[in-house]
Amino acid sequence: MTETSQFVIRHGLPLVFAAVLIEQLGVPIPALPLLMAAGALSAAGKFNFFMGVLMTAIACLIADTAWFYLGRHRGNRVLGFLCSISLEPDSCVRRTQNVFTRYGLRGLAVAKFVPGMSTVAPPLAGMSGVPVGRFLLADGFGALLYAITFLALGYLFSNQLERIGAAVSDIGGSALGLIAVLIGAYIAYKFWQRRSLLAELRTARITVAELRQKLEAGENPVILDLRSKVELERDPSVIRGAIHLVLDEVEKRRHEFPHDRDIVVYCSCPNEATAARVALLLQRHGFTRVRPLLGGIEAWREQNYPMA
């Protein structure tokens, strides 16, 4: 029996509860390996499977309810924080909104199984005005499904997991050190990639005051609203004159955009990463006057500039 298995046996349910709670609160500490280890131990009669499911579901509900109320009362500030710590800031909100568009509240269950989405989904549900009772029902179902799935996988493949654990233990600390280095390198690369993307377009960004001046001067720039469909349904207001396009439509319709006018792009992610990526995409196709809007639609709204 590996040291990991012995550790889980000794600490059991509190360890599973704490690990799941911390992960669901947004700390990048994966609870999935621990859940599968607990499931494998339950096959040997050394862990209570049903209590594990219950503790996992409760931990999920506590964290998700906290994010739900933060989303309801703090909205875009919460999304801004989540985007700032996400390794994929351009998709942290957009992918989750697309899931809600397709599945509705069932998207809460889907999000539980997609890295990066499980923490973003509850505050988006809070922002959308979903009743608390319906949220708790849908989220509770998703939490139970999540708990049962990974504990059951550990239970069913307990022999294989035990062999993997024994093999890693035989190799020793060097294997764990290599895994830690690879994970650290991946995180560092994604962080560098995000910083490089934003830095590349930082000097090209246009402020809401500058855009307002251009509109008043009759320069008639092309303004692209890149928010998701579900975000537009929740808040149908756009900057006056803006054209709404989902991200996938930009590539197909780029031939419609003029090369001799400014193209201003904005999105709902507070870090403007989606707008930055679209600006880079258009620049690669020969559009030299593409500029992300600093602060997006929220900055425009804060100045009480015209909306449509």
What report would you give on this structure?
- The chain is mainly α and 308 residues long.
- It contains 15 helices and four strands.
- It has a four-stranded parallel sheet with strand order 2-1-3-4, covered by helices on one side.
- The longest helix has 30 residues.
- The chain is elongated.
- The chain starts with a helix and ends in a 6-residue tail after the last helix.
Major beta sheet, strand line-up: 2-1-3-4
Please state the structural category. Answer: mainly alpha
The shape, in one word, is: elongated
Identify the quaternary structure here: single chain
C-alpha end-to-end distance? 65 Å
| Biggest sheet record | 4 strands, parallel
Query: Mean pLDDT score, rounded?
Result: 77
As residue ranges, the low-confidence spans are 167-173
What is the gyration radius calculated from CA atoms?
A: 23 Å
- Roughly what fraction of the amino acids lie in strands? under 5%
Which series of helices and strands comes N to C?
Answer: HHHHHHHHHHHEHEHEHEH
The strand count comes to 4
Number of helices: 15
Helix content: 55-70%
Task: Give a brief outline of the structure.
With 308 residues, the chain is mostly helical.
Attribute tags:
four-stranded parallel sheet, elongated, 15 helices, 4 strands, 308 residues, mainly alpha, 66% helix
List the topology elements.
Layout: H1 3-24, H2 32-43, H3 49-74, H4 76-85, H5 94-103, H6 107-111, H7 121-127, H8 132-156, H9 158-171, H10 173-202, H11 208-216, E1 222-225, H12 229-234, E2 243-244, H13 247-253, E3 263-266, H14 273-284, E4 290-292, H15 296-302
Parallel strand pairs: 1-2, 1-3, 3-4
Helix pairs in contact: 1-2, 1-3, 2-8, 2-9, 3-4, 3-7, 3-8, 10-14
